[in-house]
Amino acid sequence: MPVIKTEQLTKRFGDFTAVDAISFEVEKGEIFGFLGANGAGKTAQVCNLCAKRIYFLIINNNLK
């Protein structure tokens, strides 16, 4: 069972698409990283994942 799973995740800034329909899974114990050129959307993807996790905790009343 993956500890992180995303399907077709997209991040846009106005007309600019920083991350376009990315899908991946990370299993427990795996080492995972993003590689890419400057402006490829690595930081945008990490921020997107963090925001989704916080939202999930808030709607499930688990934010501690």
Task: Give a verbal description of the structure.
The chain has a two-stranded antiparallel ribbon. It contains 1 helix and 2 strands. The chain has one helix spanning 42-59; strands at 2-13, 16-27. 2% of the residues are buried. The model has no long low-confidence stretch (mean pLDDT 81). Strand 1 and strand 2 form a beta hairpin. By secondary structure, the protein is α+β, with helices and mostly antiparallel strands. The chain has one domain.
Note the main attributes of this structure.
2 strands; alpha+beta
What's the structural blueprint in terms of helices and strands?
Layout lengths: L1 E12 L2 E12 L14 H18 L5
Antiparallel strand pairs: 1-2
Compute the gyration radius: what is it?
A: 13 Å
Would you list the SSEs in sequence order as H and E?
Answer: EEH
The geometry reads as globular
Mean pLDDT: 81
Low-confidence segments, given as residue ranges, are none
Strand portion = 35-45%
The strand line-up of the biggest sheet is 1-2
Content-based structural category: alpha+beta
Largest sheet: 2 strands, antiparallel
Number of helices: 1
Q: Give the helix proportion (percent range).
A: 25-40%
Ends apart, CA distance between termini: 24 Å
Number of strands: 2
How many domains is the backbone divided into? 1
